[in-house]
Amino acid sequence: MNILVVRNDKLGDFITASPAIHVLKKHDANNKLIVLVAPLNRALAEACSFIDEVIVDEGEGVWELSRKIAQYKIDVSITLFSNTRVALAQFLARIPKRIAPATKIAQIFYTDKVKQRRSQVKMAEFEYNLELTKELFPDINLEYKKPLLAFEDAKKVYDVFRINNEIEKEVICFHVGFGGSSDANWTLDEYEVLIGAVLKENKYQVVMTFGPDEKDLYEEMQRRFYNTNIVFYFSLDGLIYFAKLISNFKLFVSTSTGTYHLASLVGTPTMTFFGNSLFASAARWKSIGEEKKQKHFMLPSEIKERSDLFEQIKTELLSI
What we know:
Layout: E1 2-6, H1 11-27, E2 32-37, H2 42-47, E3 53-56, H3 62-70, E4 76-79, H4 84-92, E5 97-101, E6 112-114, H5 125-132, H6 154-164, E7 171-175, H7 188-201, E8 205-210, H8 215-224, E9 231-234, H9 239-246, E10 251-255, H10 258-265, E11 270-275, H11 282-285, E12 294-299, H12 303-318
Helix pairs in contact: 1-5, 1-10, 3-4, 6-9, 7-12
């Protein structure tokens, strides 16, 4: 059976789809798993052994997208996040069975509409994605391996990075940037205090990572930590290299953004900051890795509560 899974949005969103794709492949190895993804997720999708084919959504028109999909002779599609364009494209591609959540006007183009009410956040995003697979295979086993993605050469990649940057201790990584659905983070001044405390303890090497669109932030943090032994990594080597690199870190500290999901995907322990609302909460956006490796903190808006939580986090960082 040729199964198309559609999740053509941001990095973290695609990662929350990966367990669903994995269990569909595990359910029957003869299933051919094809994914429709955004360009930024192409390399990551191609690195997943449980994905057979990758279709990249370049933002083309509906007819062109439908022709691209039709080439793969899809038997059934599962659309984890829908809009009218991708729904109509699948209809025009004449996919016989089209499964999607029963939301928005786009649902009229699907044959099987599943009421999930994700806005109620009764489970995490990746768990809703897993639940959708039951519409196709009611007896499917939703268990998946953790970490879901591993690279044989990850240690070799890290060893080169470690030697080039004279790293002799385990690494605590800080990714201070913003992105995705994240709506809360510490200020740069607050991060400076947290990072300074870890440096003073002198137990771990601190690495700071920055995405390719965060050049100004990269330069700002270099100015703040001038003449320290922090390693500043500006990510220009691609998502797969970055995933291999962070899979070797002791801890990945960040707001709830795509890189947090990437760290959890490859098995790295995480300390993550979430907005104080149901939409942005850890209840919705906890990642797909082992829960015991995830530390979640909801950032309050009240000054006193925020200050108390800040001190708690500083203590936890120093107790690792």
